[in-house]
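Z., the sequence and structure:
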Amino acid sequence: MIKWVKLHFIPHDGNDHQPHFLRFKIGCFILLLVLLLEAVYLTCTMIVLPRSEYFAAIFATVLIDETNQVRQTDHLASLTVNPILEKAALLKAEDMAAKGYFSHNTPDGKTPWYWFEQAGYDYAAAGENLAVNFTDSKDVTEAWMRSPTHRANIMNGNYTEIGIAAARGMYKGKEAIFVVQEFGRPSIIARQIEIASSTVTALTKLITQNDVTEEPTPAPVIREVSVTPSTTPRVLALETVQGVTEPQEEEIAQPIIPTKTVVAGAETEKLDTEKDVVLAPTSNSGNQATRIEELVASPRSIANSIYLFLGGLLAFALALAIFIRIRIQHAHIIANGTLLIGVICLLVMINAVLVASSGVI
């Protein structure tokens, strides 16, 4: 092994001060390997993955994990996956895919919160992020985090639940994957849930200890009490500029009326009058992506990792060829290494530009 490394990377008398890793034959092999990898990557991202139902399904799962990882960096609690929010996200994604539009509001004027109502999610606060034409989950997450309005949704400590879905469709004449990320906080606050749970647990223990044979005590019904804000509320008025939603604050002169949506756009809250509330089951188990799914959902990251590895080897070999015997240099060896590193850098830049020019949030 040591002999092989010395022969391929270290210039010495045994290889005529021309490391084999930088010679013409191996250089041609590396160039063909890189070009083949790029061809496979472009074929997958432009043709295969946008048409794959499997890819659309795992894309959503991986994005949930990445969203929670980003929140944890800011010491925020992880969002719990809610099946009803996933249904709302899927309804919205399928509608965009079927009609070929990309907007928070539908062409016929339906707001994002219409899909929450259709799915049956009763929220106290809700938000929505959208993306289209991405084939790498990390690219989607990074694009959302670079946008102030999308980042605000992801890092909003007011949300407790999440649902993400993706659907295949046509966007600007090309196959594309529409991604919808829905955030929510149910209309019963966490403290009320904890009180209800502890009350039921205490009653169950009491009945068990005393061996009571009476009919079971029904679980208490939790009612929400409407709250009138004491300060002048502020809302986000949304403008769409080239597909990007930007917030502008506006003052509301009149107090908020309970049961009405008080924020319009990609983020909303509402105050409910007193009523019985039924919670939907939530779960984090079974929703975490496997390592294979994470890899499949990150083709550009994989390609970049391979390019980085090959580029690192070439840079290492080139540095050894130049500096170990400075007085003995071979121009074609240096040219081979420099050319290959340049090709790899060019491909990485091209892929980044393709993502930046095609992906929309």
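Confidence is low (pLDDT under 50) at residues 219-265, 271-286. The chain has three domains: 7-52, 60-195+277-290, 298-360.

Let me know what you think.
H.
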